[in-house]
## 1
Amino acid sequence: MPYLGKNPFDFLGKFLTELPKVELAQDDIFGPSSLAVTNLSTSVKGTNVIPSELTLFIDYRQSAKDTEEIALAKIQAVIDRCKIDGIDVTLRPFYFPLTTYTGYQGKGYQGQYPFSVSMEEPYMQLCKKVLEDAVGHPVKAKPWAFATDTGHYAKKGVKCLGYSPAEIRFCHTPEDQIDIKMMEEGIVGYLALSSALANQE
């Protein structure tokens, strides 16, 4: 008698309708944050049982103004608007177990922190000159409009920059590919940067 149970899908229907109404922050460098539901699992495998639990994954790609705390608060506000008596909802960032190459075990944050670096920074000016001297032509600087693990290092105070011979339009698509000439030039650039930065503080 399904009608006697508390169905978490009743909450989910309301929640998915309200979630697109979240106001996403706009950043002058990175543009707006983005939000998408990407996965759903339930506590049952059959089709004739009301699940006791649903797990929903939300991919929230934050601009610099949408910190983790702000992003969670925005989603929590949607949850609060959609509450149904008898159905408990818990929101939390996704961490996964990991083991490093040294054997240390801990938890990893499934996400990347946004960060930006001014081209006026001395080390950025140094990197630009090193690259241009190595590859023989001007190197332009621009924002990366996608996630990168580098944000974890930047959050810890490590000086970071991104340099890649890839084309964003192909990355992580069915047409993912690399231009050999760009790759060869990229290797030259990587070696030059490694040599120049090896003893920098």
## 2
Amino acid sequence: MSFAKAPRFREGHADTPGPGQYKPKFTSRSGGPSYSFGKPRGTPRQPGLPKLRQAQLKLVAELGRGGLATVHRARCYGKEFAVKLCRFQPGLTNPEQDREGLHKEALLLAGLRHTNIVRALCLVTDQHGVMGFGQELLGQSLEAAASIGQLTPQRLASAVAPTCMALAHMHQLLIAHLDVKPANICFTAQLTTVKLIDFDAAMPLHHPDEVTERFPGNLAALSPEILGKLPYSPLAEDCFQAGWTYTKLIEVTQVMFDEVLLARLSPLLEPADTRPTMQKMLDDHLQRSEALVRQLQPEGRPVLLGSRPQPDNPLLKLFG
């Protein structure tokens, strides 16, 4: 047959289109990119969350509250979990803005997916739309454990690396938490590890060197950059807040300070230009032997409290 000898492809090299050569074309019919091979690159689509009506929930107990929302223990279909719901305060808040903020927080959590970050379970809706979201039920926060004398030196030390891992994961995705503090780090119900919670102050970034002048969520732990009224790196601010959190907890819960752990944490309290990243903390500072840490320990370390806490109320300066 005559066509049997015809070449299927023209002679010479012809590039095959693929993801690296993809050029989107928008069509009036679809309103989206049109292409015939490969997949367009870009931000991955955020995973969806199932929806529950507020009327389907039975609120069992209040677990905590912030400026815009209240967290409850809830029950639905025989399962217990936590729900973070808008707290409507006429004249003080913008309900639509609060709803949108909780919706964004839930979607952000759904996309993070890390062992040491609280897991979003569902969106909670009412007749006006999304009013909050469900999340896994955790145990005590570091703040709560410290306030009743249950934050032993061993438990405190075991929480440092998981916190750094959670923040390093977020920073790799260019998201800053900006509200790292004892109340926002919780033990799991089984006390096997800790998880980072409360992402309403979280800030997505365009690049790792981005700076901002927006105030962070944790106003008790302000880095030297913010105190100097300078633009600051949100990622570096997370690192400072992590160092502040654990240094504070050591100083107010331990009679004999864990000097080795304090020395490991001290670089996080340095100015931004010498402050290590969370990944650097995991790869270097937290891996050093105790002997090396003691050898490299500086003569003095940053003191976050003005004086030693009084024995009758050791947590006043941290949580009061």
